[in-house]
Amino acid sequence: MSFRIEEKLYIKPENLIQFKEFLAKKSVKKLHQPRIIKSLYFDNLNLDMYNDSIEGSVPRKKIRIRQYPNTNDREYYLEIKTSSVEGRFKTRQIINKEKYISYKNLGLLDINYGICLPNYYVTYEREYALIEDIRISIDKNIFYTNFKTNKTFSDNNTIVELKTSINKNLDDLTKVFPFQKIRFSKYCLAVEKLN
Asked: What's the gap between Cα 89 and its chain centre?
């Protein structure tokens, strides 16, 4: 397991062109083609994962099943993002369609959170880039959908995530990206807008 630093930037639509110009000046490298990501998030009936995230508790988790519609990748990925005192890490495992359907219908069992049921889809377009050892993802056209009611909320802002090694100095990261950092979770926003 490799820990990493994750920082987030919230870019308003009117500032996106300037942000991309900033990246171009930094000799950003495009990692691969933009693609649509669709994630189904799970939580227990008390929404403990949401509450832990809002409170900044550690350790905490987010559990989701991710797909890449509109690509040749037809797999389903069960992902568990863990935030701990040491840092953040993500585990990922391919599951088959039958298991995906089973998790959607019955939920899944987590050792810390108990029975977790599907509650929100988050769908967006992601671009991937690299500056030095910093991976950059740019998420836009974000849609949040309540799993049970199908009620949807759209967000026209852009979320930029910076991911790098746990060994990176945070001051160096701030020098490379002199933008305001935010605490932000797509899952938490889905809960707040659609619960």
From this structure: 12
Number of domains in the chain: 1
* Confidence check: pLDDT of 1 > 60: no
Q: What is the CATH number of the domain that holds 95?
A: 3.20.100.30
Whole-model pTM? Answer: 0.92
- For 178, residues 6+ apart whose C-beta sits below 8 A from its C-beta are none
H or E element, residue 107: none
Write out the two tokens for 28. Answer: 């950003």
Question: Could you give the CA distance from residue 177 to residue 23 in angstroms, rounded to a whole number?
Answer: 9
How far apart (Å, rounded) are the C-alpha atoms in residues 113 and 12? 35
* Mean pLDDT across the chain: 92
Which pLDDT does position 88 carry in this prediction? 85
Burial of 88 (0-12, 13-18, 19+ CB in 10 A): middle
Contacts of 9 (CB under 8 A, 6+ apart): 19, 159, 160, 161, 162, 177, 179, 180, 181, 182
Q: Please choose, from the candidates 167, 75, 159, the residue with its C-alpha nearest in 3D space to the C-alpha of residue 124.
A: 159
What pLDDT digit, counting tens, does each position of 38-87 carry? Answer: 999 999 999 999 999 999 999 999 999 999 998 999 999 999 999 988 88
User: What residue numbers bound the domain in which 104 lies?
Assistant: 4-194
Q: How far apart are CA 35 and CA 38, in angstroms?
A: 10
| CA-based nearest residue to 39, from 154, 159, 145 | 145
